Amino acid sequence: MRKFLFFAIALVAGVLAFTACEKNGNNSNEPGNGQTAQLASGTWVCQLNANGYMYFEFSGNSVKFHEVGQALGSTIDAWIGGTYTLKGNTLTFSFTDSNVEEMKADLDKYEKTATLDGDKLLYSGHTFTLQK
């Protein structure tokens, strides 16, 4: 069973790695006003294709980043979570947990910053839209 789970997660990661949402070439982070704020609780979604999407969940200063995909007839939802700070329009993440044991060793390899642009969240070359 463990081998199947690892294979399914690897398959989902492969699917997500070779698909993309709307790419954003602008990765500049404008300096903020130095004040720390919170986002309103909510979900920001990036649809990759018919079989996969990514989304952020924000609650207080907690964040979870999900990668969801279909593999072998099952839905796989792998997430990493932790906290964030918001200064100006820049979010800085500190990932500390995951629901997939194999991902826990690589938490430091995920992108640590995102940029708010109105109702868009720009992260790792993808555009996430706030769901209302």
Please specify the SSE layout and strand pairing:
Layout: H1 2-17, E1 36-37, E2 42-49, E3 52-59, E4 62-71, E5 74-87, E6 90-98, H2 101-104, E7 113-117, E8 120-123, E9 126-131
Antiparallel strand pairs: 1-5, 2-3, 2-9, 3-4, 4-5, 5-6, 6-7, 7-8, 8-9
Summary of the model, kept short:
The protein has 132 residues and is an alpha+beta fold. The protein has two helices and nine strands, in the order H-E-E-E-E-E-E-H-E-E-E.
Cα distance, first to last residue? 38 Å
Spatial order of the strands forming the largest sheet: 2-3-4-5-6-7-8-9
**Roughly what percent helix?**
10-25%
**Number of separate helices:** 2
What coarse outline follows from CA principal-axis ratios? globular
Oligomer: single chain
Uncertain spans: 1-8, 10-20, 22-35
- What's the β-strand tally? 9
In percent terms, what proportion of residues is strand?
over 45%
- Global Rg: 15 Å
**Structural category:** alpha+beta
Largest sheet features: 8 strands, antiparallel, barrel
Give me the strand/helix succession. Answer: HEEEEEEHEEE
Average pLDDT for all residues: 79
Describe this structure in words.
With 132 residues, the chain is α+β, with helices and mostly antiparallel strands. A hairpin with a 2-residue loop joins strand 7 (113-117) and strand 8 (120-123). The model is unreliable at 1-8, 10-20 and 22-35 (pLDDT under 50). The chain is built from two helices and nine strands; from the N terminus they run H-E-E-E-E-E-E-H-E-E-E. Helices cover 15% and strands 50% of the residues. An eight-stranded antiparallel β-barrel has the order 2-3-4-5-6-7-8-9. It has helices at residues 2-17, 101-104; strands spanning 36-37, 42-49, 52-59, 62-71, 74-87, 90-98, 113-117, 120-123, 126-131.
